[in-house]
Amino acid sequence: MFAPLAVAGPALLLLLTAGIAALAVLAARPADRDLVQTVAAARRHGTVFAALAVLAGLGVTLAAAMTELGGLRTGQLLAVAPLGAALGHTLVLAVGELTWPRPRARRRSARLRTRRLHDVAPRWLSRSALASAAALALTCAAGALLADADGRSVSYSWPDLATSGGGPFPGWFYGGPVLLAGAIVTAAVLAALRLVLHRPAVEGADAATDEALRRASGHRLLRGATAAALLTTGALLWSGGHAAQGLGVDHQIGDEAPVHLSVPPPVPMLASVAQGAGSLLVLAAPALLAVPPRPLRRAGREPAAPLAVPTP
């Protein structure tokens, strides 16, 4: 469905923007010496796995771009490549949560507080993730309704004259694998968010710092999945609009001069809108991936419980 350059190009753009974002975060965040030692170690752990997750996602994308399955299966593979990258990204971050630094002190304390998923995920990013998932599902559903019976092309017929077709078009042939991959990524992200929710608190950190570390983890998880959904939706919209723009045929009756048959005016207009929206979403994906989590402020230790002094 997409040329390898169409996948490798955004992948390289994602790498560039992720690198710029990493430099911005390193410049803005406080130095390790300004943080409690355990907080600094936890932050380094999260940063390392965030970088490994981005590299894993890029590796999956480039591997898909260089894999030749032959025929139409290659197009299906490239269509799900961004979501495959999001799955690899999520799995690496989940490993980071499973290996999160555990408390080592003999005497430990726990905060009796009920956390929910929205407590570890920034509200704006949660809404962006839901909106991107809905846009992807609607795009696949609309493509399935408009596509021909083969699920990968679109056509328009002039009765008793001619039929014009174009492709590739995001019908069920491409939309089905995309929706399946999207469901798998969604399940993986929710499972990883639960790991963030239930992991032990950072030893020695105050409540605000521990919550900030959890929100940073949730930010990374949602950021990668949302960027992949935006990139996939944008590519599907652009491909569908491009196929619809090509509808039209030169028809000749007998010895008369050929007459160009055009589709009704709303069709090319909607196709242009789809291409424009798709281009914007493809550009929004790396921009979203470049948004860093909110940096930690100088962390203080959890205040010690007052000593009980016996009264005479």
UniProtKB/TrEMBL annotation:
Transmembrane segment boundaries: 6-27, 48-67, 79-103, 124-147, 172-193, 221-240, 269-291
Keywords associated with the record: Membrane, Transmembrane, Transmembrane helix
Species lineage: Bacteria, Bacillati, Actinomycetota, Actinomycetes, Kineosporiales
Source superkingdom: Bacteria
Protein name as catalogued: Uncharacterized protein
